[in-house]
Amino acid sequence: KIKSSFESKNFIHTKKLRFTLIATILIFLLLIGRIGFLQFVQGNSLKEQAYNQQAINQIISPKRGNIYASTGQALAIGAQVDTITINPAKIVKDSEEDTKTLKETVAKGLSDIFSLDYNETLEKVNSTSQVEKIDKKVEQEKVDELKQWMEDNDISVGINIDEDTKRYYPYGSLASSVIGFCGSDNQGLSGIESKWESVLTGTPGKIVSSKGSNQQEIPNAEETYISAENGSDLTLTIDFNIQTIVEKYLKQAVDENNCEKGGNVIVMNPKNGDILAMASYPDYDLNSPYTPNAKLAETYDSLSTEEKSEALYKMWANKSVAETYEPGSVFKVITASVALEENITTTDKEDDFVCKGYEEFQDGSQTLKISCWRTNPHGVQSLRDALCNSCNPAFMQLGKRIGAATLYKYYEAFGLFDSTNSGLYGEQSSIFQKL
């Protein structure tokens, strides 16, 4: 035995060993925690970022559904147009100087063909983006000009011509307040086009391919094609011939009578409630909805920016559903039907009502008079006579007999408190005084 104290440098000190082991375990736990955080917390986000860096998505626009009249005429269709895009990274030559010259040539050609600003176009051509949009909704004439220019300049890659559709309205302003119009991306902005957007628009498709770390498309890489689902067509109850006749004579009536607020007409099939025609005047051209109509053009330039926007919205509005009005004598039919149903009176009871030319009623402490439309009183009348004469005092007397509570019960039964659910954009509900 060695009785003296002894230390050897060849042995690992116990405390150091324990410290090393604990440090190793902590580092190991931290690594596991970090991996778990990346996997479960940031996993979806990182996966999305990786996909965006590695994938090229080329969107395939769906064909928007057409809108037809009940008589078969197409009121809104999708015309074939094209979208022009470029891949800046593909517009290259062997040398830097040649590449610069090529990009300038491409920018000059595109700006000339599509009437664009040269400097802005050159900036897109020199961009580091994968894809840059040059122009959209391009007609076939311009596409043919571009193809010829590409052939003349021996350019076959980097400029893309992709199929697209443009909304077109064959009959211009016909039923404009009903149909509405689309924006630059074929999204419905008013009328049927907006209200039935989910039915008409369809689902876009896409072509997915891969790109490498240099942001170039990988040749012969697997390509995924997801076809677009076209939108569904809509057939309205509008009768083309009736709509055309109604609009003609509505315009004539408004112009001849100097109706400053315009006018509107609804023609309904009384057997089933189908709307055969619905017209508002002044109308507007659906193919250029941001161009003021003749009436608005008189004052448009003098308006402020905010006033111009308000004026355009008013021009687009469908008066038949977006504006409320007091039905007046139309409501006498409702009052008469309630009275007959409740046995308040009969159609030909003599001397049932007396028209003195006015009717008095109390408004708090005040006694007010409501006059008949005719200066010469109608005198004694039956219900039939009152309807034929459209006599105001007679129906006020009848309304008093029926009572407000009973009248409101029938108003609700007639659906007068509810929207008609016409499927038209901007429909307003009724306004009633509460009992």
Description of the structure:
It is a single chain. The protein is α+β, with helices and mostly antiparallel strands. The chain is built from 16 helices and 14 strands. The protein has helices at 14-41, 43-54, 96-113, 118-125, 140-152, 176-179, 191-195, 197-200, 240-256, 294-297, 305-316, 319-322, 332-341, 383-389, 392-402, 404-413, and strands spanning 55-60, 67-68, 74-86, 132-138, 159-168, 205-210, 224-226, 234-235, 263-268, 275-281, 353-355, 358-363, 366-371, 379-381. The strands form five sheets. Strands 2, 3, 4, 5 and 8 form a five-stranded mixed beta sheet that branches. The longest helix is centred in the first third of the chain and has 28 residues, at 14-41. The mean pLDDT is 87.
Mean pLDDT: 87
Extended strand count: 14
Helix count, DSSP H or I runs of 4 or more residues: 16
Low-pLDDT stretches? none
Helix content: 25-40%
List SSEs in N-to-C order: HHEEEHHEHEHHHEEEHEEHHHHEEEEHHH
Instruction: Tell me the Rg in angstroms.
Output: 37 Å
Strand residue percentage = 15-25%
Distance between the termini: 113 Å
- Please tell me what the overall shape is: elongated
Structural class, judged by helices and strands?
alpha+beta
How would you characterize the largest beta sheet? 5 strands, mixed
What is this entry, summarized?
With 435 residues, the chain is α+β, with helices and mostly antiparallel strands. The chain is built from 16 helices and 14 strands.
List the helices and strands and how they pair.
Blueprint: H1 14-41, H2 43-54, E1 55-60, E2 67-68, E3 74-86, H3 96-113, H4 118-125, E4 132-138, H5 140-152, E5 159-168, H6 176-179, H7 191-195, H8 197-200, E6 205-210, E7 224-226, E8 234-235, H9 240-256, E9 263-268, E10 275-281, H10 294-297, H11 305-316, H12 319-322, H13 332-341, E11 353-355, E12 358-363, E13 366-371, E14 379-381, H14 383-389, H15 392-402, H16 404-413
Parallel strand pairs: 2-8
Antiparallel strand pairs: 1-6, 2-3, 3-4, 3-5, 6-7, 9-10, 11-14, 12-13
Helix pairs in contact: 1-2, 3-4, 13-15
